[in-house]
Known about the structure:
By secondary structure, the chain is mainly α. It is 75% helix and 3% strand. One of its GO terms (cellular component) is plasma membrane.
Amino acid sequence: MSHTNITIFHPAVFVLLGIPGLETYHIWLSIPLCLIYITAVLGNSILIVVIVMERNLHEPMYFFLSMLAVTDILLSTTTVPKALAIFWLQAHNIAFDACVTQVFFVHMMFVGESAILLAMAFDRFVAICAPLRYTTVLTWPVVGRIALAIITRSFCIIFPVIFLLKRLPFCRTNIVPHSYCEHIGVAHLACADITVNIWYGFSVPIVMVIVDVILIAVSYSLILRAVFRLSSQDARHKALSTCGSHLCVILMFYVPSFFTLLTHRFGRNIPQHVHILLANLYVSVPPMLNPIVYGVKTKQIREGVAHLFFDIKTWCCTSPLG
C-alpha cells in the first residue's frame, strides 16, 4: 500500500483583496462605507442610551430593540473597519484565527438578528392579540429567558463552523477575494472535500432563518386578523402603527439577506465584485437604517432622543468647561 504525503498547513495569515476588479475605486467606495458605518454605530448607540435612560421605555419591546441595536453594532463593527483598513492602509493581512473569529461573529449576528426579530414579532402578537395578558405573559423573567435562548441558539448553530474550518487543510493559496472572511469563501481555499461545510454553512443557518420567517408570518397574519376585527378605525390605525416600524426592519433585514444569498448561490453570471459589494452593503446599510426607522416611526423614542440632547445641551451650558 502506498501513501501519498501531502503538505497540509493552516496559514499564519489570509490575504483579503477587498473588492477584486474595483481596486482603483477602493478610496471612493470607502467614503460612503465609512459614513454609513459611523451613522450605524452612532444611531444604534444613541438608541441604546435612550432606552436605558428613559423609564417609560423599560418595556419588553424596547429591550428587544436594544438587543437589535447591539447586534447591528457588532455586525457592522466585525466587518467594516477591516474593509476600511484594506481600502485606506492596504492592510490586507488577517491572522488565521482572527479570520475564523470574524466568520463566527458575522454568521452568529445574522442568525441572532433573525431570532430577535422573531421575539419582537411575538411581543407585538401578545400586545395586540392578548393585550390584557401582556404583563402576565411577557414578564421580565420570561423576557430574560427569551434573550438567553436567542444567544444560546445563535451560538450553538454557528459554533460548529469554527471546527469545520479548522479541520480543513489549506495547501493551495491564502488569498481571499473578499473584504472580510466568510465561511464558504474561506472553505473554498482548502485542498480537501468541503461538502460538509457547504451543506452545513448553507443549510443549517438558512433553515433556522426560514423557520423564523414562517413564525413571523404566522404572527403577523394573526395580528392582522385581530386588527381588522376591531370596530374602531382609530384603534385599528393605532394597532397597525405600532407594528409599522417592526415590519420595515423585517423587510430591510430579510429581503437583502435572501437576495444576497440567492445571488451568491445561483447567480453564476453575476460579476464577483457585485457579490462583494452586496455583501458589504448588507452588513452596513440595515444597521444604519434600523435606528432611523424606529426614531422616525416611534413617538416615545423621538421624545427620548429630544430629552437626551436637551440634557446634553443643558450640561454643556452649565459645565465649567462650557
